[in-house]
UniProtKB/TrEMBL annotation:
Protein's name according to its UniProt entry: GTPase (G3E family)
Alphabetical list of PANTHER family matching this protein: COBW DOMAIN-CONTAINING PROTEIN, COBW-RELATED
Classification via InterPro entries: CobW/HypB/UreG_nucleotide-bd (IPR003495), P-loop_NTPase (IPR027417), Zinc-reg_GTPase_activator (IPR051316)
Domain CobW/HypB/UreG nucleotide-binding residue range list: 6-177
Secretion signal span: none
A single GO cellular-component term on record: cytoplasm
Gene3D superfamilies recorded: P-loop containing nucleotide triphosphate hydrolases (3.40.50.300)
Amino acid sequence: MAAKVDLITGFLGSGKTTFIQTYARYLMRQGQRVGIIENDYGSVNVDMMLLQELEREGAVTEMVIGGDLSSYRRRFRTKLITMGMQNLDRVLVEPSGVFDVDEFFDAMYEDTISSLCGIGSVISIVDASMAYPLDRNAAYLLVSEVADAGIVLLSHTEKKKDGTGDIRADETVRYLNQAMQQFGCSRRFMEQYDQKTSGYGKDILLKDWSSLTDADFERISEASYREFDHVKLQTEQAFQTLYYMNLGRGREELMSAASELLGQGSGGKENRYGRILRIKGFFREGEKWLELNATRTGLNIRTLSEGQDVLIVIGEHLDAKAIDERIGAKHI
């Protein structure tokens, strides 16, 4: 039987990797052989390090990394073929946070790949804590991710005091409908929270990852995908990524730099560094490795079993020279 391939999309810092860790463990508990393809067409991939524990638990992991966009597409297809030949039941694909979903369908419809793999579920993780509305390029990528999703999972939500729903989620769902209208997509989500579905109709699930049940995971794994047309944009050059290796910086230095780099300019617009969307990386503190993950809505640090001394800055219209000066090192 051909492996089912699930695409898990989500904007920068939305929680894709955390969800994949939970979802993969559910699938493996069901006796399924699971493969994971971690995609990022930058030169360093820190999220793959977070999935190494799953590899030790029996998942097969592959990484697509480095090169220009053409090389990235070719390597992604090669990895899909490799996974398809390993007698797996499910393959989970985590793309870059600036990924156009059309890339996935283009690959899956190729004859060689379609003979080995079939499309499973397209799962979109949407960060309810983002500052909406987004600019045009970011809004387009969001629409690309949710328009064809079989199910949308909301992350970073904030419960209402009366327990009837979620403040951020209500606003996010309304914005999703506005953005889809902006790009000529006819899909619309229910805007009223429904306790029976724990979300907004059958298409949007609102639950903390830690409270997802086996029934929820079954619903997610069987969500399939939708097909809705929308206006297409070329976004290959819209986002930039700067990499800093072996900085040797400590917690306070990195937190201070991240806070300043992510700070908003006047009117909530770009600051002098550009529109930075996410800062992510690892650093050592004594014998421990720590992960730094920062967006405009918050900064988190957590302990990991292993890591690599790297800092990654992702955004739009970046002033690389100004960022280099603030960090005190030249990007690679």
